[in-house]
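Renewal narrative, Specific Aim 1. Our central claim is that a sequence can be written position by position from structural information alone. The example that follows is taken directly from our test logs and has not been curated for this report. It begins with the structure tokens describing the chain, in the order in which they were read.
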């Protein structure tokens, strides 16, 4: 093959590669720009990296296709040269018979070589790459606006509508009547809850969006929770008492935290057994603690801890427990053993009644709060995830563990906190078979099982899907269970 044709052939190969690359880049840029512009105008979320990958893929495919379409074989290139420069198939003959060594064809090849040297086969760059440059210009025309044009602002859809229906009003009125009929807790708090529910009705009548309804109902839920929390002094009182090192004080604190007035008297009845006389060592029958020491410790500790509740001096719980401490102190001054025991009995009876009634009132207030929250969320279909953490759901953690009241440690050592026999919080310290223990079925202390079942029932009572009748059955069952423990 002659040298001139080889140069033309190499130039053609280089031009084909450059054209293919330029057209491929142009198509890739065009595709990216077109997608970017469409997504911006239609306000569609897009991933630049993902679309760049699509554009690169389109460019790669385009480049390969363009190369095979534009590239010419040696014979095709020779044919185009003959046609373009009217060479009468000289170059074709030279290529077709390149391996023929005859004299005639050698002369013909020399003639063709001279002819190729005499013509100008190299064209200007603009003409050689005209098609590629046009594609590049089109891609720029698409890419620049796509980059410059800002993304459209999506118009917010209209908020979902809300209409306060007759069914809503009927349900709210029924709830108000239910709360008004409850006279078992603080009257001011009950009236405030009713006033808030009436205010909610008025607000909802002028609310026309779902978000507005959610905001108003949740605001009322938080308000009702705060109203009940304001009179729920049992939390602060039990925390203050629990700070004492006296074991019976801790048991009283825990009983108060349970917020069950009907159980409080039973718990104190168990504690009362510790003050029937001196605490004796079961082995040596020697006196470990005298009755005077125990009464003095309990009354003094109670007065000391209640003194820290400066903002709750006039609260029923504080007053009742303070009176209890004073009556125990008075019993200390009585020298006659029988009269002293009578005074102690009276002190325990009084505190059981006064504090128990107040705990019941606070429990009833909390129960009303729970019912209000439950019924509001059901009537207005409030998602649980929208309700913020409520104060009424938060409980303090006491220093005593859940099963400490009837633990084996207390009964093994007569001098340990409870001052001897009869100090089990639940009235029984027997081992029972619990098939639902966290660690699998096993024998556990009665007090531990009692706690676990109580927490389970409490969770059920807070479940709005459980009917009122079912809740009352569970409460009655637990009352009977508690009564049974007192008789053991």
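The sequence written for that structure reads:
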């Amino acid at each position: 093959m002659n040298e001139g044709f080889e140069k033309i052939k190499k130039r053609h190969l280089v031009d084909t590669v450059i054209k293919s690359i330029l057209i491929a880049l142009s198509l890739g840029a065009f595709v990216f720009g077109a997608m970017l512009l469409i997504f911006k105008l239609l306000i569609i979320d897009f991933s630049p990296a993902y679309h760049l990958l699509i554009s690169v893929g389109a460019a790669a495919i385009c480049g390969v296709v363009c190369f095979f379409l534009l590239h010419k074989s040696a014979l095709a290139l020779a044919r185009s040269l003959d046609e373009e420069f009217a060479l009468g198939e000289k170059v074709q003959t030279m290529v077709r018979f390149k391996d023929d060594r005859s004299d005639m064809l050698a002369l013909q090849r020399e003639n063709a070589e001279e002819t190729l040297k005499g013509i100008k086969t190299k064209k200007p760059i603009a003409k050689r790459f005209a098609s590629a440059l046009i594609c590049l210009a089109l891609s720029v025309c698409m890419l620049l606006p796509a980059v410059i044009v800002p993304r459209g602002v999506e118009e917010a859809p209209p908020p979902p509508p809300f209409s306060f229906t007759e069914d809503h009003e009927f349900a709210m009125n029924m709830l108000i009547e239910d709360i008004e009929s409850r006279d078992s807790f603080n009257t001011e708090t009950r009236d405030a809850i009713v006033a808030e529910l009436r205010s909610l009705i008025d607000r909802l009548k002028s609310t026309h969006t779902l978000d507005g309804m959610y905001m108003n109902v949740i605001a009322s839920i938080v308000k009702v929770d705060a109203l009940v929390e304001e009179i729920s002094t049992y939390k602060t009182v039990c925390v203050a008492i629990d700070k004492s090192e006296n074991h019976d004080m801790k048991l009283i604190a825990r009983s108060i935290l349970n917020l069950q007035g009907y159980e409080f008297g039973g718990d104190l009845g168990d504690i009362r057994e510790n003050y029937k006389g001196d605490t004796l060592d079961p082995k040596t029958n020697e006196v470990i603690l005298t009755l005077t020491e125990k009464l003095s410790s309990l009354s003094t500790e109670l007065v000391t801890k209640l003194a820290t509740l400066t903002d709750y001096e006039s609260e029923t719980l504080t007053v009742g427990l303070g009176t209890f401490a004073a009556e125990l102190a008075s019993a200390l001054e009585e020298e006659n053993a029988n009269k002293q025991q009578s005074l102690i009995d009276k002190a325990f009876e009084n505190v059981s009644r006064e504090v128990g009634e107040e705990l019941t009132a606070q429990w009833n207030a909390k129960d009303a709060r729970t019912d209000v929250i439950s019924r509001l969320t059901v009537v207005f279909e409030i998602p649980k995830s929208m309700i913020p953490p409520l104060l009424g759901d938060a409980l303090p953690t006491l220093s005593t563990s859940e099963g400490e009241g009837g633990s084996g440690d207390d009964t093994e050592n007569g001098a340990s906190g409870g001052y001897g026999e009869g100090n089990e919080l639940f009235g029984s310290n027997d081992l029972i078979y619990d098939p639902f223990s966290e660690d699998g079925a096993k024998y556990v202390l009665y007090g531990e099982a009692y706690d676990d079942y109580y927490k389970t029932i409490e969770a059920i009572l807070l479940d709005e899907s459980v009917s009122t009748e079912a809740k009352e059955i569970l409460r009655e069952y637990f009352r009977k269970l508690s009564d049974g423990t007192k008789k053991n």
